[in-house]
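Re: that chain you flagged

S.,

Sorry for the slow reply, it's been a week of failed gels. I finally had a moment to sit down with the sequence you sent. For the record, here it is as I used it:
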Amino acid sequence: MNQSVRPAGAASDAETPGTLSGIPRQSTRRPPPGEGHEQAAKGRAPGASARRLRPWLLLPTPTGTPFTFGYALVLAATSLLARYADPDLVETLLHGSSTDVAHLAHSPVLVLVASALWIAGGITSPYAIGFLLVLTALERRIGGLRTAGVFLLGHVVATLATEVPVGFSVLAGHLPDSSLHRLDYGISFGVAASVGALAGLLTPWLRWPVLVGFGGMLVDDLIAFADPMTNWGHLLALLVGVATWPLLRRRPGAARGASPTGSGRRPAAAPRRAP
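Prediction finished late last night. Pasting the structure tokens below so you have them in one place:
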């Protein structure tokens, strides 16, 4: 029986690609970094990104947005109190929380905080809904501390800017003394400032429609002249939020540890001279 002898190291017919086995040899070359992820992304179903959308993130949560969540609970409690409690008690509480000139002159800090614990118009008002959506989105981007700062800044600046002129007008005799006790409370100034701040963190194609739409609504209210002082305060609060763009776009600690050269790397130490 004749046997053919192959030289050492020669490949058999079964090992040769495209012969008897019909299975080409698989390449052992690994794809470059990132190529595998791109191929996997191409192979995903078109609805995969839609399935990843999580609409519940539009609302505050105890862990994700603790400031907005806790504040919303307080507002819900005061709204229920205003709806179901004795009307005389509610009226007394609202007048005691009013940021009118008389209260601002005696206890400014107390009434500025107390007035922001109520929602004018109740829990179903547009500003209550805006509070949930806008402050949740803002806190998810800049954190609870800076969100509280934006809200408080708009609330305080717009309140003082609308009430202080009333005091001077009363002193000048242009307004009656009853204007010193004008009922003024609610979260609308803080929400308006938060809208302005959030717009600066959005992409341009979404930023300007938000500003134009919300600003146009405020101008409409001002033209209606139903409550011009409050409406001017809303516009001013929106501008206060816009003015915070440079601060909010700067990430906390971004400059911490940066090198003087701006490259993000520390300069190499100079070599020591040989003795």
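What I noticed first: The first helix runs from residue 35 to 42.

Talk soon,
D.
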